[in-house]
Amino acid sequence: MKLFKLTMLTPEKTLFQGEVQSLKVMLEDGGLEVLASHLPSIAYLFPGECRVILENGEKKVFVSADGVLNIKKSEVILTSDFLEWEENISIALQEKQKRIALEKERRSASFVQNQLGTLDLFRTLLKSNKKNTL
Of 9, 21, 31, 52, which one has the greatest count of Cβ atoms within 10 A? Predict the structure, then answer.
């Protein structure tokens, strides 16, 4: 069977890069199977269970959040905020939840710092206006 290069990327990591026989993903209007020499196109991924058949014939299942599938002449690039092999999904979800919580905390602290900075600016402007009016 013909092979094609598949790269599966998230912002944090490259989940997979190598030769595969086929890739099955979910789109909004149903599933799509990509084989070697597939017509070049770009598709919006729908969250769900996906499958890949590796070069050696091994079938692997992975989970994808929404993302983009870029099908080129001899290469496919799958990008998503979340991609993980089925066997690692529990640990990956826990890690993702921790990152989200830390980001929320960071943004909250940043908002508070911004508000405090704005108050300091107002205080300085008020003091300056008082000096100018005396």
Answer: 52
| pTM, two decimal places | 0.71
Q: Which domains does the chain have, with CATH numbers?
A: 4-88 (2.60.15.10)
Q: Are strands 4-9 and 75-80 parallel, antiparallel or unpaired?
A: parallel
Q: DSSP per residue over 6-19, as a string?
A: EEEE-SS-EEEEEE
Q: What is the pLDDT along the chain (134 residues), one digit of tens a residue?
A: 899 999 999 998 999 999 999 999 999 888 999 999 999 999 999 999 999 999 999 999 999 999 999 999 889 999 999 899 988 888 877 887 888 788 888 888 787 787 778 877 777 877 777 777 66
User: String of b and e for 12-45 (b: at least 16 CB within 10 Å)?
Assistant: eeebbeeebbbbebbeeeeebebebebeeeebeb
Tokens of 109: 């602290």
The residue ranges of DSSP E strands in 28-98, in sequence order, are 30-35, 41-45, 48-54, 59-64, 67-71, 75-80, 83-85
Under a CB-based contact definition with an 8 Å cutoff, are residues 9 and 36 in contact?
no
